Amino acid sequence: MIQEEIILKYLNSDATAAESAMVESWAAQNPLDFRLMKDIYVTSSEIKDIKVFDVDQEWDAFMDLVDEVEDEEEKQSEAKVVPLKTAIEAKEVSIWRELRPVLLTASLLMCAVVAYFLYPRGEITHLAQAAGETISLPDNTVVTLNENSIVKYPRSFDDKNERIVELTGIATFDITPNPDKPFIVETNLAGVRALGTVFEVDATDTSQTGVRNIEGLIRFFDVVDETKSVDVKEGESFTYDGSDFAETTPLPDPVFRTFEAPAPELPMYTVREVVNYIYRISNGHAVPKGEDFDWNKRIQVELKTLDLDKLLREVRMKASLTLIKKDCPDCYEIRRFRVR
């Protein structure tokens, strides 16, 4: 709810431009509340202009009057002088006349304040002060508001057939499911009907309303004629300008695929089988010495050749193979064999 201090600053012409915009937006949504606050402000200003009754000062003046009357009675013997009782009564009337406007104005101000703050009004208007501000509605529906967005909702949904709230700005609604009471968000142009879902409504533009469905299924419709509608599925988004619905669902990112030529039709062998074959055709001269081996991975090679150099060239095209050449022919230490 908007802070009373901001409203008073606005009425006193001390509000900033942002604060003035907030108050004017709130006043448009709550004309009766704004008028009451304005009346309270005017009444309190009138009180400041009234001369407040000073009891001590008036009592001193009254006692001075008593002394004057007593002096006159001593000087004059006849009843031509105003009696003390008459003077006192006249002073009491004068005091009451001065005090009556103060008491009346104070009573009116107190009644106005009590009516504004204690009278149970039917609706609540909440203005978000910052982006991401979250509130919980009476049915435990969670609303996340953008800065300066306004949501208006009843204090209770118990006696209502539908849960209807009004939105100005942008908000995300996480709806508490209730099949017996559909949840509806209304803007100046459109409405969104849901039973249980999560969706975002954008009503920042008075000429267009947007909706983005995050989870579930919703119906996006004209606020005046609900027969003009579109069902919005999960992940979709639409806008409505009062005449037509337009889909604004983002297109998926393009997928780029690279194609490789199929591998030749060669048998598949494990690394262990290939190393054993190399060891065999080299008469035991090419031996595994390292520890970096994909022993159980499979690789496409032809193991029918008896030419060790040819086999090693074929293996190196498909795997990372590290060999250390020794002094004798076909003598190698195999330090690494990892399939790519």
What does this structure look like?
This protein has helices spanning 4-11, 17-29, 31-49, 55-75, 84-118, 271-281, 308-316, and strands at 123-127, 133-136, 142-145, 150-154, 163-174, 183-186, 190-194, 198-203, 209-215, 218-222, 229-232, 237-240, 245-247, 268-270, 286-293, 298-300, 319-325, 332-339. By secondary structure, it is an alpha+beta fold. It folds into three domains: 4-118; 123-247, Jelly Rolls (Sandwich); 268-339. Strands 1, 2, 3, 4, 5, 6, 7, 8, 9, 10, 11, 12 and 13 form a 13-stranded mixed sheet that branches. Strands 15-18-17 form a three-stranded mixed sheet, with helices on one face. Helix 2 crosses helix 3 (31-49), helix 3 packs antiparallel against helix 5 and helix 4 packs antiparallel against helix 5. The longest helix has 35 residues, at 84-118. The protein is elongated, with a radius of gyration of 45 Å.
- Helicity level: 25-40%
Mean pLDDT score, rounded?
82
Low-confidence stretches: none
The CATH architecture classification of the largest domain is Sandwich
The major pleated sheet works out as: 13 strands, mixed
- The helix/strand series, from N terminus to C terminus, equals HHHHHEEEEEEEEEEEEEEHEEHEE
Q: What percentage of amino acids are in beta strands?
A: 25-35%
Q: Could you give the distance between the termini?
A: 64 Å
